[in-house]
Amino acid sequence: MSPYVASFIVFISIFLFGMAILRIGLQTFSQAKVERLLTSMTATPFRGLIMGMLVTALIQSSSAVMVITVGLIATKLLTFRQSIGIILGANIGTTITAELMTLNPDQFTIPLLIVGFIFLQIRKQILFSIGTVLFGLGCIFVSMHGLEAMSIPLSSLSFFDHIINETNTSLLYGIGIGTILTALIQSSSATTGITMSFINQDLLTLPSAIAILYGANIGTCVTAWLASIGSSREAKLSAYAHIWINVLGVLLFYPLIDVFSRMVEYVTTLPDVQLAHVSIIFNVFSSLLFLPLAGILATMIERLHGGKAI
């Protein structure tokens, strides 16, 4: 194995570790309240969207929210139709992670790691939680810096050079890469971080990076689908709804990739920030489009998959 590939894998692992630590810290602030919020505040699709958005922003993982949702449906604390709003909100809430990754880590990465590590040694829950959040952020910034540093050496390898060239040539290829990579590493945030590292080095064009971002939205559905295996009929329907919403969103907004590119280029000249802004625009527009159609979408999924098992 090339040392560049090995280093690339190490930095992805550090990123995933940082995300896991960050999520643990955020969850411990209000772990008992998360399920209560989802079960008590999802009476309508709009309220479900708000709750899905807030909880996902809180725990920094749409996949985790979907796993919780599938579990609540399996235990009959939520219905399939209530989950539609949560799915739409989770897609919006996860965009906060992309914006966090655009922060310049150079000045405060080491302080975050040091202070976070010190707080991790304290048994008081609130300080321990703060420590996990700070240490997790530090790990994410370390991995982002490392991935960006590795992007140029990796592009010199024929395999990665082929992928980069094909992605820049075909947006559909980029969607496929984003889908497969996210399904493999189980993190759309990690896929976005990798894409940001390549776009910052001018190895990817903004439209091709957006295509990968679209694919990551599809690939992240795998986690909820896996969680629903062996669960109740309604839990499986929720996993199917997650897939349908994200796939239809990509299909509907695929023609607008160039439009989104031009929109964010007026806002900022920083490539990674442009991609983070597109993530917000795409997910907000997509969720708001599906929100008034939540009932129709639920009926369609029940007719298509109601009698099927995963």
SSE blueprint and pairings:
Elements: H1 3-29, H2 31-40, H3 45-59, H4 62-74, H5 80-93, H6 95-101, H7 109-120, H8 125-155, H9 158-169, H10 171-185, H11 188-200, H12 206-219, H13 221-228, H14 233-253, H15 257-267, H16 271-290, H17 294-305
Helix pairs in contact: 1-8, 3-5, 4-5, 4-13, 4-14, 5-14, 5-16, 6-16, 7-8, 8-11, 9-10, 10-11, 10-12, 11-12, 12-14, 12-15, 12-16, 13-14, 14-16, 14-17, 15-16
Instruction: Tell me about the largest β-sheet.
Output: none
> What is the helix content?
over 70%
What is the rounded distance between the termini? 37 Å
Approximate shape: globular
Helix/strand class = mainly alpha
Number of helices: 17
CA-atom Rg in angstroms: 19 Å
One letter per element, helices H and strands E, the order comes to HHHHHHHHHHHHHHHHH
How many β-strand stretches?
A: 0
Unreliable sequence segments:
none
Question: β content, as a range?
Answer: under 5%
Mean pLDDT: 83
Can you give me a brief rundown of this structure?
The protein has 310 residues and is mainly alpha-helical. The chain has helices at 3-29, 31-40, 45-59, 62-74, 80-93, 95-101, 109-120, 125-155, 158-169, 171-185, 188-200, 206-219, 221-228, 233-253, 257-267, 271-290, 294-305.
Describe this structure in words.
With 310 residues, the protein is mostly helical. The protein is built from 17 helices and no strands. The protein has helices spanning 3-29, 31-40, 45-59, 62-74, 80-93, 95-101, 109-120, 125-155, 158-169, 171-185, 188-200, 206-219, 221-228, 233-253, 257-267, 271-290, 294-305. α3 packs across α5, α4 runs antiparallel to α5 and α5 (80-93) packs antiparallel against α16 (271-290). It is globular and about 50 Å long. It starts with a helix and ends in a 5-residue tail after the last helix.
